[in-house]
Specification:
single chain, alpha+beta, Rossmann fold, 4-stranded mixed β-sheet, 5 helices, about 25% strand
Length: about 180
């Protein structure tokens, strides 16, 4: 009986251990693409961009809360640009995009799991000429019915906040670069 309860306790521990936010879960997809089209964003008028540097992310410890690693956010950002056809073919000139993850906030004690992500994006032309510098904060809420495990809801909320942050970057670039004189 003791061995069975020990196995059950270990199983619950492993089921609730934190997993990092996945690049696939943070990548802009069909839903966000459709939202861009409904807002009359002409993606072909946006510049092609190459992700140069992503900083500020944290690795997830198995017993801590989920986090976003810089490398994983960079991968999601690259995949999103590729999906939206804003990533250049090899050896083509492109603008350099830097992202700095400033804050990831997971309020505790909530059954519905919110996550808030703040990222600073900077876009450069050749010779490091800065042409865009914006900080974007997004939030995403995962309802308690989505998953029993709080760490799973936290991971899903973080991925949603990151995906929405990348979406807001594209929307902001569209508004900023197409309204400049």
């Amino acid at each position: 009986m003791l061995a069975r309860s020990t196995l059950l306790a270990l199983g619950l521990c492993f089921a609730s251990c934190a997993a990092p936010a996945s690049p696939d879960g943070m990548t802009v997809g069909e839903r966000e693409y459709s939202k861009l089209l409904t807002q009359d964003v002409e993606l072909q008028r946006l510049p092609v961009m190459r992700v140069r540097e992503v900083t500020g992310g944290l690795e997830t410890s198995s017993m801590g809360t989920p986090q976003i690693a810089s490398m994983d956010f960079a991968r999601a950002l690259r995949s999103s640009l590729l999906y939206l056809e804003l990533s250049p073919p090899r050896n083509e000139t492109a603008l350099d995009l830097d992202a700095q993850l400033l804050e990831l906030e997971l309020p505790s004690g909530a059954l519905d799991m919110p996550a808030y992500l703040t990222v600073r994006y900077r876009l450069f032309r050749e010779e490091d000429e800065l042409i865009y510098d914006h900080t974007i904060r997004t939030g995403y809420l995962i309802p308690r019915e989505t998953s029993f495990a709080g760490v799973e809801r936290a991971r899903l909320a973080i991925e949603g906040a990151a995906r929405d942050n990348i979406f807001e970057l594209v929307l902001s670039l569209w508004k900023d670069l197409n309204t400049a004189p």
